[in-house]
Amino acid sequence: MSDFGPTDQRLRRVEARMPGFPVDAMRLVRMTNHLHKTFRDRTNALVKKYDLADSSYTVLAILYGCVDESSSASELSEACHEKPANLTRVCDELVARGLVERCPKPGDRRAVMIKLSERGRALAEQAIPEVSNMVIEACNDFSPAELRQLSDLYARLLANLNGRS
């Protein structure tokens, strides 16, 4: 589902039926959801050959970018935007495959650290460039200034949603 036209038409009908309906803001929300799903579907297609899904790829990519390639489970859950129960399931699968390891957090035996294994690092180093190339292709007709502007606008929107405008 790559055509946004039908969604735009539905929003226009809602606007016609509800004066004051924030059509531009709602279009942004729907388009953001549409973009997220499209990127997720494309990422899933790219990482399928590694027997990964978007959520497991995301865990590996985030860990690859962390200091010492490790993170507490709670920080990883927040970074992945995954509920703790789902992150536990994803990490269980990654542990079973030898891609990540669980270990106690130094100084706090109750907390669990998730660490990228050698196999996980090698897989991340294969998958990350493929996903990055897909993103580069999607953004190829944006200038660096436009990408920064879009990023700044999304950051403002996130700040507004989080009450930090």
Protein described:
- About 65% of the residues lie in helices and about 10% in strands.
- The chain is built from seven helices and three strands; from the N terminus they run H-H-H-E-H-H-E-E-H-H.
- The protein has helices at about 5-15, 25-45, 55-65, 75-80, 85-95, 120-140, 145-160; strands at about 70, 100-105, 110-115.
- The two termini are about 35 Å apart.
Question: How is the secondary structure organized here?
Answer:
Layout: H1 5-17, H2 23-47, H3 54-64, E1 70-72, H4 73-80, H5 84-96, E2 100-105, E3 108-116, H6 118-138, H7 144-161
Helix pairs in contact: 1-2, 2-6, 3-6
Q: How would you describe this structure in keywords?
A:
single chain; 165 residues; mainly alpha; 3-stranded antiparallel β-sheet; 7 helices; elongated
